[in-house]
User: What shape does this take?
Amino acid sequence: MTMNSDGFYNDLIDGIKKVAPIVAKNWNEKKLEAAKEWYGKPLHEVLNEVEPSQRSAERSKQVNIPLNTLFVDALIENGVDIYEEMADGYDHVYKGCQLEDKNACSQDPKNRQWVGNNNGGKKVDVHLLKRFQFDDMMRIIGMHVSIVDLSKTQAEWKSTGGARSILQFTIDDLDGIIPVLGEWYSPRKSLFPTWESVNGD
Assistant: This one.
């Protein structure tokens, strides 16, 4: 049985597609302005002061919590049965199913990894994986969102040898992946996520 053959995730899929422009608009118009008031300068200027090798990690750190909250709040407002419950191994509960929420903010289309840490307990199988595309002003212009059930794939979180672990996929994992926004392409065996344009104006 492939993932979502019973339609369990249909409400979540439809909700994500509906709220993506709302999330982008709220980020672009409200959250960036709030960040400017907090730092005394625009967020893109704050990130430009970070060493290039650390910029992607710092970008993720700055956006993770506010973007996750924007997403869940918008889904709830649109009638999706989901709520935030940040616990060891998961972040949200959808129709009683625990979801691990992971963002990736690398702007390199060749980067296909999601990064986590090894400090917590084992993550649940079902993941909500998001990637954000930003312009030079840190406005959202594109998103990738997939729902993934690791139990239906061969993928797993793998330690990098330090405090971090990474998650990435191959064509053997497609039965456990539902692309919601954006697509996956495979020049050979590895899978690469693509962004879908989002109008947040």
